[in-house]
């Protein structure tokens, strides 16, 4: 189904984007805890790993850890980590690396002051103002990938923006990742659900970039997320996928899902101890597989509504935990991932102010990789077309905030003030005219009108304007075609794997 728009939509839609380009966060990161308090969290995490340990459900992963010197329990699953072992292993994690897109203009830098923003990922449902909330499907999956390609605030994919539930699960990854390779030039993602699916995704990305295997091993080109099953468990399938990624020198984002009071201690400090322990265990494992392979410290600590048990996001606790995670990740000199999260069931005011809390946490904590950056609602259960646009607006504002403000003889404006003098205005001042096109914020949703004209025209909401914008974007989208020989190789690989039955059930 083609999501077009009438001519009238273009006439009333005021859509502007700032130019594409990855931004750096030039500001000093905020500290929630003192250095002594961060050290206490660090030491407590190491104690948890040494005394309590982690359940590692993959025998293959256990053998790798045993080979490297970790302490294996009598049950063959409980693994305990000596503190010196952990620190020695994570020390080989690169503090910075390049994540490669289809061509040079789409490569992004990971780590340091660099910021990467992504689309929502892994939502089982999708919604828009026209249809309401429906089950995820391949058409909407593809449309959201297209929006991610055309939006300049999106730098990479962080997963399937919505799960294409209408595709057979054994073949889903083949069609989904190959579609992303065709529809997007930005760095791609595959799910670490067992070795087979992960290897297929890695091969699709290699083919889509038009590179050989030797080049792929040198150039990280795909990410995945491995979540801990908090508390203190790593799943077999995810670890099997992580092994393939590490062996191919591709980055894994090791991310505990620690909800204070439910899956972690109820205090922010206690939840951070568990998050840190689980993330360190994953990062150390990654280096056991392939020392020097890139990886990312994942932060996803929030709280729950203790009356209902429902997750809460974009809360003060989430914000504090994210900023504190920045302190921990910088202590280890490892890039940091967090999220633009909210718990609202609609692209409404709540979704925006909770996302603002999340995004400010990412800015203040100097997060490098923002997952779910565009379109997340309903605590991650739904991808919203309108929220994609609302988030793009917020992220564009954040990018403008990160731009440097120079102080010199020219910017101080003394000559402009003298030119204008008392009781006049600066609209026509030479300084204003020289900078009008380059120094003002480019709004995407701006629809300012005085009250009388606004009342006469009807009170259109931001979500209603966003509805028009995403339709316009999809209508304007042009597929970045693969080279014919690349398309032939990609189609041949997918067809062969489908004929083989795809991935075996786990």
From TrEMBL:
Q: GO molecular function of the protein, one example?
A: methyltransferase activity
Q: Name one GO biological process term.
A: methylation
Indicate whether Repeat appears among the record's keywords. Answer: no
By sequence similarity, the record places it as follows:
Belongs to the trimethylamine methyltransferase family.
Query: In its keyword annotation, does this UniProt entry include Methyltransferase?
Result: yes
The name under which this protein is listed is: Methyltransferase
What lineage, starting at the top, does this entry show? Bacteria, Pseudomonadati, Pseudomonadota, Gammaproteobacteria, Candidatus Pseudothioglobaceae
Task: State the EC number(s).
Answer: 2.1.1.-
What is this enzyme's class at the first EC digit?
transferase
Keyword annotations for this protein, in alphabetical order, are: Methyltransferase, Transferase
The species is Candidatus Pseudothioglobus singularis PS1
Question: What InterPro entries does this protein map onto?
Answer: MttB-like_sf, MTTB_MeTrfase
């Amino acid at each position: 189904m083609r999501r077009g728009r009438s001519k009238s939509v273009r006439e009333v839609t005021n859509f502007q984007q700032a130019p594409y380009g990855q931004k750096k966060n030039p500001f000093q990161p905020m500290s929630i805890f003192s250095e002594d308090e961060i050290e206490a969290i660090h030491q407590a995490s190491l104690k948890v790993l040494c005394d309590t340990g982690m359940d590692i459900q993959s025998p293959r992963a256990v053998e790798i850890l045993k080979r490297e010197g970790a302490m294996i329990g009598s049950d063959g699953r409980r693994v305990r980590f000596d503190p010196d072992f952990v620190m020695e292993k994570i020390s080989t994690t690169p503090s910075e690396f390049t994540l490669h897109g289809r061509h040079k203009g789409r490569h992004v830098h990971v780590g340091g002051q660099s910021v990467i923003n992504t689309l929502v990922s892994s939502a089982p449902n999708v919604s828009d103002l026209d249809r309401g909330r429906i089950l995820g499907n391949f058409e909407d999956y593809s449309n959201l990938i297209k929006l991610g390609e055309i939006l300049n605030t999106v730098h990479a994919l962080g997963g399937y923006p919505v799960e294409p539930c209408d595709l057979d699960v054994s073949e889903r990854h083949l069609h989904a990742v190959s579609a992303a390779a065709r529809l997007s030039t930005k760095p791609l993602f595959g799910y670490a659900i067992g070795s087979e699916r992960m290897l297929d995704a890695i091969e699709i990305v290699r083919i889509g970039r038009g590179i050989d295997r030797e080049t792929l091993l040198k150039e990280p080109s795909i990410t995945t997320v491995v979540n801990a099953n908090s508390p203190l468990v790593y799943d077999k399938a995810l670890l099997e996928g992580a092994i393939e990624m590490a062996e191919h020198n591709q980055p894994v984002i090791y991310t505990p899902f620690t909800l204070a009071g439910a899956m972690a201690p109820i205090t922010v400090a206690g939840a951070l101890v568990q998050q840190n322990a689980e993330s360190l265990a994953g990062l150390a494992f990654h280096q056991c597989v392939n020392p020097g392979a890139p990886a990312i410290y994942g932060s996803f600590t929030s709280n729950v509504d203790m009356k209902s048990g429902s997750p809460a996001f974009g809360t003060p606790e989430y914000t504090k935990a994210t900023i504190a995670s920045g302190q921990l990740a910088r202590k280890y000199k490892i890039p940091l991932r967090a999220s633009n999260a909210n718990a609202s069931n609609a692209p409404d005011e709540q979704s925006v102010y909770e996302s603002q809390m999340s995004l400010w946490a990412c800015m203040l904590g100097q997060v490098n990789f923002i997952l779910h950056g565009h379109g997340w609602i309903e605590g991650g259960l739904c991808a919203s077309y309108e929220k994609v646009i609302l988030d793009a607006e917020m992220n564009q504002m954040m990018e403008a905030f990160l731009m440097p403000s120079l102080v010199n003889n020219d910017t101080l404006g003394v000559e402009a003030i003298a030119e204008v003098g008392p009781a006049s205005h600066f609209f026509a001042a030479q300084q204003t005219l020289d900078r009008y096109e380059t120094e003002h914020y480019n709004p995407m949703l701006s629809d300012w009108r005085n009250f009388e004209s606004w009342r006469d025209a009807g009170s259109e909401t931001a979500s209603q304007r966003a509805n028009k914008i995403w339709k316009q974007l999809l209508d304007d989208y042009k597929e970045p075609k693969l080279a014919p020989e690349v398309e032939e190789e990609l189609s041949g690989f997918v067809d062969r794997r489908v004929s083989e039955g795809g991935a075996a059930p786990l």
